[in-house]
Amino acid sequence: METVLRDATAEDALVLGVLGTQVFLDTYATRGIRPLLAREVREHFSTETVAALLAQTGMHFLLAERDGHLIGFVQLALGVHQPLVRAEPVAELQRLYVQQRFQGQGVGKALVAAAAARAAAWGAQALWLTAWVGNQHALDWYRRQGWRELGSTDYVFEDERFENRVFLMALPRPQSPP
């Protein structure tokens, strides 16, 4: 079945939030659900929160669908700075979420390629992301895709720190007309 990529619209907020919740919990709730994780999910993936993100200038969601069903998405933000990234301007790949049953089928690669093209079109020189150190699958995947590892940073939520690795992808400079 063909994977179709498209830009998200406001009407996608519900399904984005539900898929985001599912992938988040599959990834981060490796020992079960606790209040901290439950609050994190509610804060970041409610329909209202996702709708507000979709309306933000400089924020972009690309969706991957099969037969009209959402199977993955990428969330891209222009101009978000990271101290380990020296390039300017930059874009952050804030989320790459693909349902587990669709991983290994090129969905993530297609979403990242589309996000990189969008970031380059915006004028970004580089695309960066962070990946949790407990998500070995993601860390290995980004390394295999040629992302350069720059170091670590902490994600802080409710006074708990979670180590993340920072990765960078240089983007091609747009060709100037002859």
Description of the molecule:
The structure is a single chain. The chain is an alpha+beta fold and 178 residues long. The protein has one domain (4-170): Gcn5-related N-acetyltransferase (GNAT) (Aminopeptidase). The protein has helices spanning 13-28, 35-45, 47-55, 107-122, 136-144, and strands at 4-7, 59-66, 69-78, 90-98, 126-132, 148-157, 160-170. Strands 1-2-3-4-5-7-6 form a seven-stranded mixed beta sheet, sandwiched between helices. Helix 1 (13-28) runs antiparallel to helix 2 (35-45). The longest helix has 16 residues, at 13-28. The mean pLDDT is 94.
Strand order of the largest sheet: 1-2-3-4-5-7-6
Q: Please give the count of helices.
A: 5
Radius of gyration: 16 Å
Largest sheet: 7 strands, mixed
CATH superfamily: Gcn5-related N-acetyltransferase (GNAT)
What is the beta-strand fraction? Answer: 25-35%
Q: Termini separation (Å)? A: 41 Å
Q: What would you call the shape?
A: globular
Helix fraction?
25-40%
Q: Note the run of SSEs as H and E.
A: EHHHEEEHEHEE
The CATH architecture name reads 3-Layer(aba) Sandwich
Count of DSSP E strands? 7
What's the CATH class, please?
Alpha Beta
Q: Structural class of the helix and strand makeup?
A: alpha+beta
The CATH topology is given as Aminopeptidase
Features:
178 residues; single chain; seven-stranded mixed β-sheet; 5 helices; alpha+beta
How is this structure best summarized?
It is built from five helices and seven strands. It is of the alpha+beta class and 178 residues long. A seven-stranded mixed β-sheet has the order 1-2-3-4-5-7-6, with helices on both faces.
